[in-house]
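Standup notes, structure subgroup. Blocker cleared on the FE2/S2 (inorganic) cluster input:
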Amino acid sequence: MTWRNAIKLSKIKSKSMRMLNLGTKIIMIYREEEDFLATEGLCRHMRWPLSWGGKIEDGCLTCPLHQTRHRLEDGELMEWAPFPLFPPYGKFVGKFSRKKNLKIYKTRKTGDYLQVFLD
Ligand code: FES
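Run returned:
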């Protein structure tokens, strides 16, 4: 359990997302002005990288592929794949994924860096 430097603050613009490898974890960082959030980087449904088209609105993060949606406050699953873009493939592979909340990581700014707490 430790704080890790994730990214230089100057390397991420407001309203943008970045994927990072921190140790063995893939993390998605989102910046909105001076606020940051960090979640696990791959969608719980079929492991789509959430920074590739993920949408943040109304306090939730929605995966672009099949619209799985999680609340950002605590990562709770709000909706599980309501829109299968490729119905046969998506439904089949999705059956092997266990419905699960999205991991949300604590963040803090230290000097020029954003740090993420890995537990
Ligand atoms: S991969 Fe994200 S909803 Fe299916």
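Discussed briefly. The CA atoms of residues 58 and 71 lie 9 Å apart.
Next: hand off to the docking folks.
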